[in-house]
Write a structure and sequence with these properties.
Length: about 600
């Protein structure tokens, strides 16, 4: 890559502009033995007042690799060695263990946060820019780097001022923080973002499995959907608050998406250009066959030089001297008829993708969407992508977004789900889970990558309901005038035979079976102040569908009274209450006078 980067600097104005952007804006972490850079966001750590110089830059303008991807598309065919720099072969190769870590992190995030849509190529792009894919894949079998990858100490000298937060536990520095590991986390960020990606019971920033999984969760926070360019930009900028860093990561992301392949650990290429020009860095070790600017290895050359027996560039012949008058005149060199060999050919016109052919979205037989609060909807949303002629389009990504003020979500608690259409052009959402907020819910389907009108689906969340109520006991409910009932009323609510939990209920002492008016005599409840109340509202069944009423009291009126309990959904139960004086005991027989 270094030699190719040098060639770019010597090209025409257009290429020079590209190189200028790379040198001035894009910057790189560090190869073996060379310091990599720090990472901090506002959410990670509260900087000390001395850190004011880093405002606007989450990383304190720390260095990162600035090498651009090759101009040629990557070659997905495996190779056995690093290969010549700039061919597009070595840069596309990712060390086996590092690549495995990225893919396992993507799989884990697909389960934990399906709405994030994290591509492993994004982790590869950041890993390339931050540490050159863990120093070209110099890792042990468990993914731990052979040597710790440390950034410069963030002492305010050209970087942010971040004083020690881990007592040197991760970076070995008890004075200032340093970024650690292949994904370059500062200790205060790792403290909350760290993950155990290889299930060894530890969260080690120097382990590529742990670091890749942590980076994935870091990029997926804030409910970001990385299939949306706006959220993708925000996520990358939160990793390093630099527009140039964003542009560089996006270049590598698109490069890796075009194709990549696995190479043996320790044989990955090492970038050679850093945003700080390598200031303060120790000499960069090189892998066999890999060169860095200004260095050569046996059998390689720097631009404009040759080695014995090589077929590299040779000095051009001296121009012909003009002949003297009468000597036949001069010869004007003809312009070249073919462009230089290294001039990139214009890219071929790409055929339209399936997404390009979509004209609209159609409902694919979803049907009525309704569920009680807290329950899963029994139907899923089905959407079909179609061309203008009504032909189904497969392999199109459709984004489903729950909009409005609602706590209804897809399974897993996500409010966004992105699903690819199948061979019939149909995308089916994950199950919808109704929240506690009742009312109308809108789910909007849109085509990812196209500015087409969305398709709205209406769903309804109703309050929890019961269709049956029964007493849990059969003891008679009796009381003497002016006394307290010995037993409390307890009922169980069900809906279609299942427990009806969280169902709203009302208890009222009514005048008669035909008159639901509240009675003004007989049994009563007491409120918090001890006052008489004969209607209770705001009651709810518990997790087992049970509802136990407060204690009941009686005034001096005797007779039979009715307590009516009703629930949302129409379930009703009427309970009899009896207030009667205690029976007088029978007099004992009189004594016989004759006796």
């Amino acid at each position: 890559m270094a030699a190719q980067f040098g060639r770019r600097l010597r090209k025409g104005a257009a290429t020079t502009a590209v190189a200028a952007v790379a040198v001035a804006a894009l910057s790189a972490s560090q190869a073996p033995g060379v310091n990599d850079h720090g990472r901090q966001t506002a959410a990670d750590a509260t900087p000390s007042p001395e850190a004011s110089g880093s405002r606007g830059s989450a990383t304190g303008n720390s260095p990162y690799y600035t090498d651009l991807p090759p101009l040629k598309s990557p070659n997905p065919a495996p190779t056995t060695g690093p290969g010549p720099i700039g061919t597009g072969t070595t840069e596309a190769g990712i060390p086996a263990t590092v690549l495995d870590a990225y893919k396992k992190a993507e799989s884990a995030l697909r389960e934990a946060k399906p709405g994030c849509n994290l591509p492993w190529q994004l982790l590869a792009a950041i890993g390339r820019v931050e540490s050159g894919q863990a120093r070209g894949g110099r890792v042990k079998a468990d993914g731990t780097t052979l040597k710790p990858i440390l950034g410069p100490q963030l002492d305010g000298n050209g970087f942010a001022l971040i004083k020690d937060t881990d007592d040197g536990a991760y970076d070995g520095n008890s004075s200032y923080d340093q970024a650690v590991g292949p994904m370059q986390f500062i200790p205060s960020t790792w403290a909350w973002a760290g993950r155990d990606g290889n299930a060894d019971g530890k969260k080690d920033p120097n382990n590529v499995y742990d670091a890749a999984l942590a980076a994935g969760h870091y990029l997926c926070r804030n409910n970001w959907d990385l299939s949306q360019q706006g959220d993708l930009d925000r996520a990358i900028l939160s990793y390093n608050n630099s527009r140039d860093y964003l542009n560089l990561v996006m270049r590598w992301l698109e490069y890796y998406r075009k194709g990549t392949h696995e190479v043996p650990d320790g044989t990955g290429t090492l970038p050679g250009n850093r945003s700080d020009g390598g200031a303060g860095a120790s000499p960069t070790p090189t892998l066999p066959g890999v060169t860095t600017p200004g260095t050569t290895t046996p059998g390689t050359t720097t631009p404009g030089t040759t080695t014995p027996g090589s077929s590299g560039p040779k000095p051009s012949p001296k121009p012909d001297r003009p002949e003297k008058p009468g000597g036949g005149g001069t010869t004007t060199p003809k312009p070249p008829t073919t462009p230089p060999a290294d001039t990139p050919s214009p890219p071929p016109t790409a055929p339209p993708t399936p997404t390009d052919t979509v004209d609209h979205l159609e409902d694919a037989g979803t049907g009525k969407l309704a569920a009680m609060a807290g329950d899963a909807f029994d139907r899923r949303i089905s959407t079909r992508a179609e061309t203008e002629a009504g032909k189904a389009v497969a392999k199109v990504r459709v984004r489903f977004t729950i909009v409005g003020d609602t706590d209804t979500t897809f399974t897993g608690g996500e409010s966004v789900a992105t699903v690819a259409t199948n061979s019939s052009g149909v995308a089916v959402t994950p199950a919808l889970e109704a929240g506690e907020k009742t009312g109308a819910v809108t789910v909007r389907a849109t085509v990812v990558g196209r500015a087409l009108p969305g398709l709205d689906y209406k769903a309804t969340v109703t309050e929890r309901a019961a269709d049956a109520l029964v007493r849990t006991g059969d003891a008679a409910l009796t009381c003497a005038p002016g006394g307290e009932f010995a037993n409390r009323v307890e009922v169980k609510a069900t809906y279609k035979g299942a427990v009806a939990d969280g169902v709203a209920a009302t208890a009222t002492l009514v005048k008669s079976a035909d008159d639901p008016t509240v009675t003004d005599k007989g049994p009563y409840f007491k409120d918090a102040d001890g006052k008489t109340v004969r209607t209770l509202t705001g009651l709810k069944t518990d997790a087992k569908g049970l509802l136990k009423l407060p204690e009941l009291y009686a005034d001096d009126t005797t007779g039979t009274f009715l307590l009516r309990i009703t629930t949302a959904g129409g379930a009703t139960l009427t309970v009899e209450l009896t207030v009667a004086a205690a029976e007088a005991s029978a007099p004992s027989p009189s004594a016989d006078p004759s006796a």
